[in-house]
Amino acid sequence: MCGIVGYVGYQNAVDVLIDGLRHLEYRGYDSSGVALYNGGKINVYKAQGKLQNLVDELKKQDPSEIKSNAGIGHIRWATHGVPNQINAHPQTCNCGGLTLVHNGIIENYAELKTELENAGCKFKSQTDTEVAAHLIAYEYAKTKDLISALKNAVKKLKGAWAFCVMHKNEPDCIVATRKNAPLLIGVGENENFLASDIPAIIKYTKKAIYLNDDQITKITKDKIEIYNPDLTLSQNKVEFLPFEPMALSKMGYKHYMLKEIHEQPDVVRNILQDKIFDEISDIKLKDVKLTKEEIKNIKRIQIIACGTSLHAGLVGKYVMEELTGIPVDVEASSEYIYRSTIADKNTLVIGISQSGETADTITAIRQVKEKGAHVLIITNRNESMLARLSDSLLHVNAGIEVSVAATKSYIAQLISIYLLAIFIAENLGKEKSILNNIKHELLLLPSKLEAILSNASHIRDVAKKYSGYKNFIFIARGINYPTALEGALKLKEISYINATGYPAGELKHGPIAMLDETMPVLAILNEGRVYDKVMSNCEEAYARQAKLIGVANYIDDKHKQLFDDYILIPEILDMVSPALNVTVLQLLAYYIAEYLGKDVDQPRNLAKSVTVE
Ligand code: G6P
Question: How many Å lie between the centroid of ligand 1 and the Cα of residue 354?
């Protein structure tokens, strides 16, 4: 949700900034801009639309004007103001002396705007960000010091922000701060960086410093100063960044999404590697800090998450309740925040988030911490804000996920949930044979995922056949109901086809009215408790002329004629089957979107990490 970068050093700043923004495109892509310090003035360039438009704009400029050793850049996901050139960042004060980029939302911008207008400021954009540019410039006029100007200005703001600020009177330096929005400092040699996220800087350095809320930093090419809110100096730890630049390559695949789906077998191997050794040994989760005693005292579990992570949480409910016997509630973070939720020291709250940055989930988790619940975070980013708020951590270790639509991180979340549920069940002394059977299935999962991926051409053929339909229904029962939701979400996100997931038994309570030959119904069937029931629902859909697609590990001969198409997955225990079924649905959504020529990795209106509530 907006990405920011800053650079001061020996290289041409514009090249580093554009490269950094390219790796932050997953955070927004409706407009972009850079500000470059150039001989006592700051030149600002902005463009509406994809980053390439900014690159094209820069090519038209006089090279001596864009030559610079210090600059800031921004890629936008619009919140306040339409995505046009004027609303793009950087935003500047009236005289153009101060310019800044911002990630976040200034909630009290309307009041501040009125005050600043009364003080003579002229606003050009519709953004909340421009308020900050005027306000900091106003404070700078009083103190002539950018650090104290920033400190005084942010005291008046409400909301969330990461700012990188430059002033024409402060050559070759950037001043930055953050509150409830990510910002890290990349530590280089003869150069230093600022960025919303690691991919923007990993090519240049593997060392980073994380800023705490309200700290202010000033970077030059050979110095990094960090100030606490009272302006005393701070020594934040330099951390080693875990990623390889290689993780950001498409490795020959047409899209990151396809590459990331194909990485899933290895993602599962990775996550299992140091946690399950064989099917009879107990699971080891080194960063889960719950003692046996605390586990015995857990009376309820609450899972909080958004989007795809929420669907992983829903699978978690089925798994946890079945294996541990503890009641589990699952809720969208944005709903959890605004009601009187009941949590206490006997509640285990599990926050699930790929990015660890989702604003709704952060707010919900902060609320819960005040109630004394034990907070366990499942995330792909163990340096993230949510990870830092956790009492216990499960790092899903899926590697950087670039495509906006989550795929490999979802599978990794599912595996983490199975591991956690077994871990709790083992500590509660539950029946070993059931738990060992699931561990056995998890260990076999990578090769079964490989079998599905080797059948991708069949899934592509089915996708092509259905790519012309405007609506889709996904149905399943039991533990695959969340798979139906996730399959529908994937299709919506990247192809813009209207797809909805339903519990199969609910079809007859309304959605059945929509069925005719224009409405494909995709049914997920797994041999087990609910197989016959879902098959009956398929019969009902067939009787209404709906096109039926089956995703199943088994379809008996007498039912095969119901299906226009079916995709068979390997034999698998019902409880573990969501991990296989979802892979089929990810591929189906991918190939439909690809066939329709959609922008698969950067679907319209979406951002990968949503840092506003
Ligand atoms: C955005 C993304 C989704 C993601 C959701 C939650 O909406 O587009 O793909 O599932 O945020 O993100 P998180 O990082 O918390 O899992």
Answer: 7
pLDDT digits (tens, 9 = 90+) for 468-502: 999 999 999 999 999 999 999 999 999 999 999 99
**Nearest atom (ligand 1) to Cα of 405:** 9
- Report the C-alpha gap between 178 and 103 in whole angstroms: 9
Query: What are the tens digits of pLDDT across the range 446-466?
Result: 999 999 999 999 999 999 999
Geometric angle at alpha carbon 270, from 325 and 412, rounded to 5°: 50
b (16+ CB within 10 A) / e for 278-294: ebeeebebeebebeeeb
Q: How far is CA 385 from the centre of its chain?
A: 13
Compute the average pLDDT of residues 9-20. Answer: 98
Cα–Cα dist 150/100, whole Å: 11
With 90 as the cut, is the pLDDT of residue 274 above it?
A: no
Phi, psi for 376 (deg, rounded to 5): -115, 125
- Pull the structure tokens for residue 449: 């995922």
pLDDT of residue 33: 98
**In angstroms, rounded to a whole number, what is the distance separating the alpha carbons of residues 134 and 205?**
33
Q: From CA 370, how far away is CA 62, in angstroms rounded?
A: 55
- How far away, in angstroms, is 609 Cα from ligand 1 center? 6
Cβ count within 10 A of residue 213: 12
pLDDT confidence tier of residue 608, bands split at 50, 70 and 90 = confident
Pocket test for ligand 1, best of 2, 394, 407, 608 (most atoms within 8 A of CB): 608
pLDDT, residue 251, reads 87
Question: Is 72:120 a contact under the CB 8 Å cutoff?
Answer: no
Q: Which atom of ligand 1 is nearest to the CA of 606?
A: 8
Amino acid 82: pLDDT: 87
Q: At 585, which amino acid appears?
A: L
pLDDT at 340 over 90: no
Report CA(312)–ligand 1 centroid distance (Å).
Answer: 11
Compute the distance from residue 308 Cα to the ligand 1 centre, in Å. Answer: 6
- Mean per-residue pLDDT, 53-72: 96
354 pocket-lining for ligand 1 (C-beta < 6 Å): yes
Q: Determine if ligand 1 sits within 6 Å of the CB of residue 609.
A: yes
Q: How much of the chain exceeds pLDDT 90, in percent?
A: 88
Q: Assess contact for 12 and 67: CB atoms under 8 A.
A: yes
For residue 46, give the H/E element and its range.
strand 41-48
Q: Helix, strand, or coil here: 43?
A: strand
Residue nearest (by alpha carbon) to ligand 1 atom 2: 608
Substitution site in 355, 381, 491, 606 for ligand 1 pocket (most atoms within 8 Å of beta carbon) = 355
Which residues make beta-bridge pairs with 405? none
Bridge partners of 307, per DSSP, are none
pLDDT band at 279 (very low <50, low <70, confident <90, very high): confident
For residue 374, report the distance from its CA to the centre of ligand 1, in Å: 23
pLDDT band at 220 (very low <50, low <70, confident <90, very high): very high
Cβ–ligand 1 distance for 308 under 6 Å, the answer: yes
Q: Is 2 a known active-site residue?
A: yes
